[in-house]
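Session log. Operator J.P. requested a structure for one protein chain; no other inputs attached. Running the standard single-chain path with token output.
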Amino acid sequence: MTCIQLFLYVYISLYSLTDWLVLTTCQREFHIINKALNWTEAQTYCRQKFTDQATIENDEEISKYRDKTLADSWIGLLSKINWMWSDGLTGSGAEYRNWETSDDEPDFISASQYCVLIGDNGKWWDYDCKTEFPFICYKGKTYCVSF
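Structure written below.
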């Protein structure tokens, strides 16, 4: 069943229950790329082959990564004064963070750590953007439709 078919089925089925409905269908697909690139190269790769670098909006998404990730990997979070997502995500989920607190992250060591890695434990830390690591991309969008 395609996203549109699923949407229409749920819409028709639920329309009589309420005059207003917020529906989320068709989650993003995450792809772990086992090619070591620096953060900027990883972002370019993700944007050319997928949608962008991974954004992580909640604990459930962390679990997806932990099940599949064996190595430290770049995600799409970076700092340009404030932390922001590579794809411009704002709103619900955009402020979610999962810092490695045992290492006092983020710590901006040597004022050169502005990009974020996720480890095999699901925790994040800032790191020098020029260092090469595998990375995580996503494809597609989360569709939210209001009626």
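Operator note: Residues 23-146 form a domain with the Mannose-Binding Protein A; Chain A fold (CATH 3.10.100.10).
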